[in-house]
Amino acid sequence: MKKIYITLTCLVGLLTSCNDEFMDRYPLDEITDENFWKTEQDLELYCNSFYTEYITGFGTGWGTSTVAPYGYNEAIAYGDVITDNAAPEAYSKVAADQYNTYVGGGSGSSGWSWENIRDLNYFLGNYQRGDVAEEVRNIYLGEVLFFKAWDYFKKVKTFGDVPWITHALETNSPELYAPRDSREVVMDSVMRILNQSIELLPTKGEEKADRLNKDIALHLKSRIGLYEGTYRKYHPELGLDGTAFLTASVEAAEQLMTGGYSLYSTGNPSTDYNDLFATYSYDGNPEVILWREYSADLTYGVAFSRYYAQNLRHRHGATRNLVDEYLCEDGLPLSQSPLFMGKDSIQSEMMNRDPRLPQTVANFGTYNLQDGVQGANNAPFPNIPGLTGNKCPTGYRVAKWFLNDPADWDRVTNGMQAALVFRYAEVLLNYAEAKYELGGMDQAVLDNSVNIIRARVDMPPLMLGSIPSDPMLDGNYATYCDYVPEAVLREIRRERRVELAFESFRWDDLMRWKAGKFLEIPVEGIKFVQEQFPNVIVDKDVFLSEEGYLLPYYQTLPDGRAFDEEKQYLFPIPIEDLVLNSNLEQNPGWESN
């Protein structure tokens, strides 16, 4: 588990010649003199900055920097604002097929940046120069290969084919003007160097404090293998076989499943899930494989808890589409369960549901901010349009990640809420899905994965012989995806959506399942009950569907969100980079924009 502020403290003591912005980016290009690369300390110093570059957590400072090309704050909790899980006050241009930043962003923008790859490759070209024992320097080699694999994985998810660069380029390097390498070549290379990283990194417990170990790399392998394997299956136009990647995902997961991990639980299904995401430390937590720690004492923090609790960033709410996917506590979907109390109010629809629902989305009167603090008017009723304060356009205020501690809010940019990056529940979900896709599904697989996750919140286990039907969800697949998954796969995907909501997984899942059209499902919020909002005026402050649900984009996006299957599974290369390198070709569908 990573405590990044310790790494930065080391940098302060060791690097006296850095500029004032080194906290954001250590000037690696200045490490060129012949006295460097001689000691283990040099190798460690060089690798330190990659930790904060890739293990971003909630970011630092004001926590306002955004992820390119998606356009949301880099904090893990905000990734879903571009998906069908959430609706921000100002609709997402990505989700509405209006993304155009690549037109004027300049070379190296919108995610098409290669500075970090150059820095990683610079290490690979120099780390053997000193008289450092091979077994020692290979540990830092393992770190760099891990970060390089992670970086390229992100690039392939974004752009598909990208250049595979093996050494640090100079201004006259011919590779600057080379075409892209195929996805097949790049992803095979990613898996190769990630396997090298796993071999070189120390076993968990044997690493230096706050540095990478094998388990962290195995977690990444589990994630990459599932993503690439399923992307290839559901995008047959690529003509690529994903079997090897799915197999790699299963193998990595199985190693972690024998590594002593378990899900965090105190035995209280009504609070354990939410408590997992609202803490200052994950030390000793059996579920957490990688996290980022903050420290006010070292003036290294982030203004996350303050503005998240106030719903200031993005001013978003969960969607009805997400809420409707949660099962009732008997394990049945809404249309099948006698326990479902209907949708006449948020109070009724929250009754008898999967305990993760009221721990992810705040029922009225829950997860209230303390009186007298800024943003307290978000509760007990959310600030839907027509009310003052930071808006929750759907009325489904997000409770996950909510840390109700005014002391941390008062720290502002020194906020210390811990950021969970890799957790064991994801590994179990990766395992279940990959096993299914490989044709290896049986009850033992479910019992060792999905049912462990369900048990934490006291939900009934998923049984292969009695999987309930769900006409609503199957109908959405048939309407928007042109395929309906087998019932067990549908439930594995449901479990993934519910368990990992607001952890920045949903976009990747939609892309790899070729389910981008789910973004076109109408965005709706709570059932509007006038008595609960006596001063809100219908057809002036809020607009309602025929069923009486809030329509947050009725005026701003009257035709609804849109997804173009011919182009939106990949993002475009910045136009300026296409001009600078005539051998680059734009991704399909973006050429005329």
UniProtKB/TrEMBL annotation:
Q: Which ranges carry the RagB/SusD domain? A: 287-590
- Please name the InterPro entries in this protein's record: SusD-like_N, SusD_RagB_dom, TPR-like_helical_dom_sf
* SusD-like N-terminal domain boundaries: 76-225
Q: Which SUPFAM superfamilies match?
A: TPR-like
Fetch the Gene3D superfamilies from UniProt.
1.25.40.390
Keyword set for this entry?
Answer: Cell outer membrane, Membrane, Signal
| Family the UniProt entry places it in | Belongs to the SusD family.
Name of the protein in question: RagB/SusD family nutrient uptake outer membrane protein
Organism (species): Echinicola strongylocentroti
